[in-house]
Alcohol dehydrogenase (Limimaricola cinnabarinus LL-001), 393 residues
Amino acid sequence: MSGGTKQPERARHNARFPKKGSFPMARITYLTRIEFGEGEIVRLPDFLNELGVKRPLICTDKGLVGTGLVGRIAGLLQDPVIFDGTPAQSDEAAVMEAFATYSEADCDGIVGLGGGSSLDLAKAVRVLTGHQPPLEQYAAINGGVGKIHGQIAPMIAIPTTSGTGSEVGRAAVINMESGRKLGILSPYNLPSIALCDPELTYGLPAGLTAATGMDAMSHCLETFMAPSFNPPADAIALHGLDAGLGAIERAVTDGSDRDARRDMMVCALEGAMAFQKGLGAVHALTHPLGAIHELNLHHGTLNAVLTPAVLRFNRGSIGSKWDVLEARMGMAPDAFIAQLNERIGMPSGLSAMGVTPDMMEKVAGEALLDHCHATNPRIATRDEYLAIMKDSA
């Protein structure tokens, strides 16, 4: 066998099995109950009954109400209460409004229904069912992980997009009244059940399919590159990435492609199952960029635009993992993602999205404070974050 044939095998082996002493002790947990399948939504009443929930608060948004989907799902239940005030990016004011509805209606459980914003809002409301406000004290960056306990309401998460994977994530990412976009993280805040029905994504428009799909793929990529030792997370991230690579263009082109919709939901699910290992510089930047109120930028679109530059930034620090990604994509990963972005209609750069040099200056400092900053394989300085954004402009 030639040396050229052996090299990819060696790269794959080294990426999966680091040398002894090259990693610290690790805590590995997987994760929560997942009910996955077409048509599974009809079992929602049974799942709520299992959890002892008689009057759930459904956290969703007005757009989804307008499609008729919320009414159809609420019609499966006997006594639901609907909060449809989730904004495009979940914020503290909406969380407090939803919690007031939960309390006033004497609800005893929560259903998060929608994209990542609705699911994150539902998880933040859930924290408040057992904890006193203000909400910002429970952000991970403020030492909030240890403040959250398990005496909170049951929750079922039902995604209607294939992007954030919030249905199996520990975090609720919320725009706080202080102006910061912060992650509230706790293993106690994993939804009691993730109810994943690909049929709920069939009507998703092409642009949103592309943006949410790139969000999911960025989770798989950043998790795989993260330096902590977690072989199950690496394996799950790569499987999710493979699913996304094979499905995203088909899902964007033909939203009724059942296999593509299923595989994109798998990509989103597995990206979030794996990112307990840690994300990185893409998300350290997209969190503060997403908190710029006057722009209201979509998280997945930001991830797509920033990923090529972050891949280049990380290349020297991820060793043979670069070769593993290159083998899957058939070319340099940064070039592949850049070309994929163009094919599926992502913006040409941050400047085209309205991000100005002054905004970049501010975000570069804020990225250093994000909870994803410390888990990138190469720790960036403020100037390096600024350079990544300029490279993505």
Summary: The longest strand covers residues 109-114. Residues 1-5 have pLDDT under 50 and may be disordered. The beta strands are 33-36, 56-59, 81-83, 109-114, 155-159, 171-175, 181-185, 193-196.
